[in-house]
Amino acid sequence: VQLQASGGGLVQPGGSLRLSCVTSGFNFDYYAIGWFRQVSGKDREFVACIRRNSYSTYYADSMKGRFTISRSNAGNTLYLQLNGLQPEDTALYYCAAGPAFSGDARTYRYWGQGTQVTVSS
Known about the structure:
This protein is mainly β. 0% of the residues lie in helices and 49% in strands. The protein is built from no helices and eleven strands. The strands form two sheets. Strands 2, 4, 5, 6, 9, 10 and 11 form a seven-stranded mixed sheet that branches. The chain has a four-stranded antiparallel sheet with strand order 1-3-8-7, with no helix packed on it. The protein starts with a strand and ends with a strand.
């Protein structure tokens, strides 16, 4: 099983990034997929998740209206569009797959290695 996240980088406040997560080794169609983020020394924080059929999405309150999660089942790929980035969004962003449509990291079975997003002027 592999989840390969990419697309992170250094961006100025107010800027945008698009994160991707290419997956393999499991049946992508059958899993809910989510994004989490973590700052060194702090707990992992839920960002957003999307159901297996893409009909439902769920965002952490602080991400609503700024971030958009999507998926391509044909491409086994998850995306996260980050707009209006602020310094407090600086973190290592992880993609994850699990059987439950949930913001609880404990329900996710597979995890990627993370991609760093740094927001700074």
